[in-house]
Structure formats: C-alpha cells, structure tokens
C-alpha cells in the first residue's frame, strides 16, 4: 500500500455494518475517521486505529464519505442537515450512501451533491455484519462513472461483489428494496413454516435438516432458522429493521399503485413482534409471534 | 439386476412425476404396470417397456403399488374405492403413497391397510419432474419398519435422498405440507418482487442475476424466475397445484387453530391466477396477476 493510494475517509454510522466497513477500510491502509451518535463506538474504533479529530476540522481533507446510517432521514441529516457534511467537502469528493432509502431520495441526493461539486454513489449493501467485517459485502451500486471511479478504493476494500446497476443514482436503491422484500418475507415465512410444523410434532432441528435439502429452502431460512433452534436472539439484524425496510417497500408500492399482499402480510408479523416488545431482538424473533398465537413454546422458552 | 431383486410394481398416475418414477423403476429392471385416467399416457408408457394387463388380472401378483395421483381424494379412490386395489393385493404387499395429503389421511390409510395385511409408506416426494425421470427425488417417508423394508427397492430406484421421518404414517405428510407452505410462498413472492422491481425499471434478467447472489434468493426463485424471463409458461408444475397444496396447508392450519397469514396471502394470488384462466399454466404464471394488477407487460406478452 503506497501513500498514493491511501485515502482520507469518514464513515458515518458505526453500527454492525458500518463498524465492519470501517475496519475493512483501515486494513486496506486508508486513514479512517469514524462518527456515530454513540460515543463508545467512536472511542472503540479509535482504539483500533481509527483517526481522531472534529468533523469541522477534518471535513475539508476527506476524499470519501461512507454513510451507513439507518434510513433516509438520518442520511439527509448527515449530508444536508444543520451540520451536514456536503457543504464542507472539497470538490469532487465522493459520498457512498449505503442505507436503504427510497429510490427518489437517492436521485434527489445525487442532484443536490452534483450542485455542490460532490460525487454521489447510490450504494446499498447486502451480506450482514460478518461479511462487512471481512470486506466481503455485496454492493448494489448506481451512479455516474466519475462517482464509481472516485469510490473505487472504498469498494475494493469493502466489497466482494459490486453490481453496477446503472449510470445514475436510483437503481441501486431499487435493487435493494427488491432484495429486502424477498429477504423480509423469507424470514417470516421460515418462522411460519417452522412453527406450523412444530404444532404437528416436527422438531425444529429436523425442519432445518430436511428443508435445507428440499425445494422449500431459502438463503434466509438457512441463515436464521438456527437462531430459533438455538433459542439465541442476539441481534444480528433486528426485528425493527424490517418495520423500516418492509415499510419502505410498502411506501414505494403504494405510491406506484403496486399491490404487494405478501410483503404486507409479512410486515404485519414484524409489527406484531415489535408490539410484543421484541423490536431490538434478532429478526428470527418473529417466530415468537407465531408461537404465542398458537400456544407453543420455542426452544429455550419456558422452564 | 437378478430376477431375485426384480419386483412386480404398479404405478398409479402417469403425470409428470409419476411417469418419471415409472421410467426410473423400469430402468432398475422391475416389471412396471402404469395406470392413468389418460389412455394415451398408458399406451406411451407401454411403448417404452411398461407391462400391460388389466388391473383385475395383475393386482394379485404385485409386490408394490406407487400412488402418484393428485390428492387425498384420488388416493382414496385408488386404494379403497369401488375398484380399489387394497383388497386385491397379496399379503404384505406395500403401498408407497406419494400424493400431498393431510397427515390424518395418511394415518387413517395406514390403519386400513394394516387391517388388510398391507404395508403403507407415507411417502410424499419433492424435486420436480426432471429429478423424477432421473430417479433423484427427495422422499419424506414415514411408516413401520416393515413398510420401509418392503418399499426399499422402489426407494432405491426413484430417490436420491430418503428422509426417515418416523415409524408410523403421518410425519412424512407433515414435512411435505411444511415444504409446500414454503415453496408456494416463495414462488409467489418471487413474482411479487420481480414485478415490483420491473415497475421501477429493473429488467427481469438483471433481477435474477443479482438476487441469486444476494440474501433474497430462494431455491424456487432460481428455478422459476427463468420461466418469466423467457415468457415460457409450459407447465412443469401448474398454478392449480398450489390451490390444492396451499389449500391443504390452510385446512390443516385452521383445524389446528394456527394463524398462517403469509401462506394465506400467497394462496389468494394463485386463486386469482386460476380465476384469470391460468390454472393449467406453469405456476410462474402467478406473475401475470401482479402484472395485470399493476398495468405491466411481462416478457413475451403483448406485441
């Protein structure tokens, strides 16, 4: 790694995804400033080699800003809010926007960044916290060729696969919303099928063993069913993420007059889980809605 | 293949699954009689080496009967109807029952067969017509050890994987209903997500290319999305199969007081497809419901 290729980068949002991306950028030899509303996360990252400094002091020297916050509202705040970073950046710096946002938001943000001389890459991510820490994410990226070029070192350090979705912002976020529709439905359907089988005497571990070799399997089923079997709801991805992401899907669908009854039904199960007080648990806890509604106990529950 | 291991077998139901199983049994050196309500299918199978003869004449010499009909009603008719085969079979012949049926039906059929001195294997199948023809099905089998032993040559010739679900009939059909809940939901959700993306400008082939490498993928998505991309609705599995199989799921769920809102939503999309006149098309045609409801044309439709 030569000085020439080393970039000055800020990562906004040091949750499980952002923290892993920041670590991957450090490993690649970049100077990385981490920002988060949780001071402990910032201090922890600096202990691991992250750079310090106040945002106002370092913003003008940044080559790239990676935004890995929760939603469009937080992305708006980071980029264009009262202390927004876009006006402080140098010409031709690049924003890599990773949160799941409506495609219209991405298109609008690209235009506002362009007016300020800043590149914008619509770049939602997929793969989970483990792949984020390994630098092996999938990125569904869309933006102008100059934005792709400016973000290349960041993509190289954080992504195993970059899907080039087009030469303007928007299609990356479209792809992400499509992926989230599927993933959110598949987790809830896994929970529905597992508890449906349990009530007829089928053991959860046998469910996973057989279904993973049959036509009923999905990536999410194989990833999340073990959480239920182990009775471990340590949050890898939280129930409340789906209120947000399937909420975005349903907002887009309604505004486009697109009827999405299956996503709508799945969303209601996550809403019920959150209403039961499980919003911060792993999303596999949606199974607890089915268990409660059918008078069953899941592994690890009860005596 | 020696004469000792060659069995005398009847296959009831020469649809895409049953025909493939009958072919696999022939290849393994067994004498195979094929029966179907469609005379053409019977004649075609005899041309390929199937044995002839009237049921009344050959029933007493059969070692095994494979029932690959549509549902519980047809299975009931074949086994116990006016011309039912069970009373005609020799002692300790085995029934391998492959249709998707309610678990209670399987348990009841096992008891009635036992009273007649006949073994019964609750043996729903998964894998599709291609694997049926190759002898590579997955079988979710449950029954008494004697039933497994008697059916072993049939399983050897038709299955790549046999899941031993238990020592009495019922759990095989439970497992199958769980698999069908998942598979039926996954096909309809693939259609929902694909058309949701299309309306936002995402090309169907790009959808498959990206999603198959992301967390939103499923076995059914990768198997059925190509039918939509190619505009080819030649039935591998028909829309109406899901009215039956998800109907069985919902019947079991309601009688057990199990709330299954996602399966219920998916079933309604297949009902709508059948109501549009698409019941005999490939099940990927459920996408046409979404396309019609959102004013879109799928590949191969329109001018």
Protein model, in words:
2 copies of one chain form a homodimer. Chain A is an alpha/beta fold and 303 residues long. The first copy, chain A, has 2 domains: 3-168, Rossmann fold (3-Layer(aba) Sandwich); 174-293, Orthogonal Bundle (N-(1-d-carboxylethyl)-l-norvaline Dehydrogenase, domain 2), CATH 1.10.1040. In chain A, the strands form 2 sheets. Chain A has a 5-stranded parallel sheet with strand order 2-1-3-4-5, with helices on both faces. A 3-stranded mixed sheet of chain A has the order 6-7-8. The first copy, chain A, has helices spanning 16-27, 39-47, 55-58, 72-80, 103-115, 128-134, 145-158, 171-199, 204-211, 219-230, 239-255, 261-278, 287-293; strands at residues 8-12, 31-35, 64-67, 94-97, 119-122, 125-126, 137-142, 159-166. Chain A contains 13 helices and 8 strands. Chains A and B meet through strand 8, helix 8, helix 9, helix 10 and helix 11 of A and strand 8, helix 8, helix 9, helix 10 and helix 11 of B.
List the helices and strands and how they pair.
2 copies of one chain form a homodimer.
Chain A: E1 8-12, H1 16-27, E2 31-35, H2 39-47, H3 55-58, E3 64-67, H4 72-80, E4 94-97, H5 103-115, E5 119-122, E6 125-126, H6 128-134, E7 137-142, H7 145-158, E8 159-166, H8 171-199, H9 204-211, H10 219-230, H11 239-255, H12 261-278, H13 287-293
Parallel strand pairs in A: 1-2, 1-3, 3-4, 4-5, 7-8
Antiparallel strand pairs in A: 6-7
């Amino acid at each position: 790694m030569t000085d020439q290729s080393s970039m000055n980068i800020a990562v906004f949002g040091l949750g499980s995804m952002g923290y892993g991306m920041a670590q991957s950028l450090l490993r690649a030899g970049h100077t990385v400033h981490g920002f988060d509303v949780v001071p402990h996360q910032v201090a922890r990252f600096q202990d691991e080699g992250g750079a310090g400094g106040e945002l106002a002091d370092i913003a003008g020297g940044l080559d790239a800003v990676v935004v890995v916050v929760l939603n469009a509202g937080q992305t708006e705040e980071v980029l264009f809010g009262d202390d927004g970073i876009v006006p402080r950046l140098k010409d031709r710096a690049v924003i890599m926007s990773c949160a799941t946002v409506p495609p219209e938001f991405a298109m609008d943000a690209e235009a506002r960044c362009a007016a300020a001389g800043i590149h914008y890459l619509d770049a939602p991510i997929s793969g989970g916290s483990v792949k984020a820490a390994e630098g092996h994410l999938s990125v569904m990226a869309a933006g102008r060729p100059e934005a792709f070029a400016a973000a290349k070192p960041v993509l190289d350090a954080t992504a195993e696969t970059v899907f080039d979705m087009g030469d303007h912002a928007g299609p990356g976020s479209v792809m992400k919303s499509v992926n989230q529709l599927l993933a959110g439905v598949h987790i809830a359907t896994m929970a529905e099928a597992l508890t449906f089988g349990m009530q007829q005497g089928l053991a959860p571990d046998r469910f996973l063993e057989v279904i993973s070799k049959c036509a009923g399997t999905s990536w999410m089923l194989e990833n999340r069913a073990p959480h239920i079997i182990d009775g471990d709801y340590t949050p890898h991805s939280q129930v409340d993420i789906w209120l947000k992401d399937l909420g975005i899907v349903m907002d887009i669908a309604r505004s486009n007059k697109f009827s999405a009854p299956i996503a709508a039904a799945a969303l209601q199960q996550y809403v019920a889980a959150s209403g039961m007080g499980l919003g911060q648990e792993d999303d596999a806890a949606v199974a607890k809605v089915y268990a409660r509604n059918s008078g069953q106990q899941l592994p690890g529950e009860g005596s």
